[in-house]
Design a protein that fits this description.
Length: 148
């Protein structure tokens, strides 16, 4: 094992910086040297936000997952990636409906109207809407019609 003093950290980062961040696959215009908080060993150079995200994931695993699973963090993350890619139903959750309506409500009037047209809302229904609240009700109704 070697020790890298603070005075040489910047140069080590420059010498070992990959072309893109290994996690976010973005440019490394804001890079940091990442290290394991358990071992203290340097893992590599990451974008600052990737490093922060990785730290939050590791802390969350220690708090919520580690005591409830026989998996390692890496195994759990691979399982999570598989789950996020593959787990699907065709059932809209009540909170999901509310989230979709909230996102719709934040759209501009033109974007709301375009969305309602894409949902095959009748032009008379759209014209009847006086404001964003009315258009959101129309949006919610159109979504729920698709669910039957």
């Amino acid at each position: 094992m070697k020790y890298l003093p603070s005075s040489k950290l910047k140069q080590w980062r420059q010498d070992n910086k990959p072309k893109v961040c290994p996690i976010f696959k973005c440019s490394l215009n804001d890079s940091v040297v990442d290290h394991c908080h358990d071992t203290g060993l340097i893992r590599g150079v990451l974008h600052r936000q990737s490093n922060a995200w990785a730290g939050k994931i590791e802390n969350s695993w220690k708090r919520f997952g580690q005591n409830n699973s026989d998996l390692t963090l890496s195994e759990a993350l691979r399982a999570l990636a598989t789950y996020l890619e593959e787990a699907r139903t065709d059932i809209l959750h009540p909170v999901g409906l509310r989230q979709k309506c909230n996102r719709f409500d934040r759209l501009s009037k033109a974007e709301q109207i375009d969305t309602l047209i894409q949902l095959k809302c009748e032009q008379d229904e759209i014209n009847y809407c006086k404001n964003s609240k009315d258009r959101t009700v129309c949006f919610r109704t159109a979504l729920l019609k698709q669910c039957t």
